[in-house]
Each structure stands twice: as structure tokens, then as C-alpha cells.
Design a protein that fits this description.
This protein has about 80 residues and is mostly helical. About 80% of the residues lie in helices and about 0% in strands.
Length: about 80
């Protein structure tokens, strides 16, 4: 069974559709039982939608890449 810590480590990959089928099923099983992780997932999805659809965050690729990497590392719970 996947716990909250493991879910948080994989949430970015899950959102990107970049997890193996068996892991995706385990993550979704955890989500079906954990309100906290459902809220985190929903909030992250909404935040990404706001940022990507706002148009006010148009950055050159060389500026965007390090920022995106820091955000994804923070979501995964790893070092920036």
C-alpha cells in the first residue's frame, strides 16, 4: 500500500502521466482512501491550469526550465 509520503513523491509524475500502470493503480487506490492527497492533487491540478492558461507567465525556455524543475522537485519532496 502506498502512503501519503510515497504519493507526494510521485504526484508530479502522476499528473504528467509518467508512471507505470501498476504504480498508477496503487496511487489511485491511495487517492480513493485519502482525502488529504485528493485535495493536494486537486489543488496542484488547479494551480497548473491557472498558471498555464493565464498567459501572464510567458518566459523564454532558458528561464522557464530551472523554475519548472524547482517546482517539480518541491512537489516530489526532493531537493531543489
Amino acid at each position: 500500500m502506498i502512503g501519503c509520503k510515497e504519493f507526494m513523491e510521485e504526484v508530479a509524475n502522476y499528473l504528467e502521466g509518467d508512471v507505470a500502470t501498476d504504480l498508477r493503480l496503487r496511487l489511485e487506490r491511495h487517492l480513493s482512501q485519502c482525502q488529504t492527497c485528493r485535495v493536494v492533487l486537486d489543488s496542484t491540478r488547479k494551480t497548473l491550469k491557472i498558471v498555464t492558461e493565464s498567459g501572464s507567465f510567458d518566459l523564454p525556455e532558458e528561464a522557464f526550465r530551472p523554475i519548472a524543475q524547482k517546482i517539480m522537485a518541491r512537489i516530489r519532496g526532493g531537493p531543489e
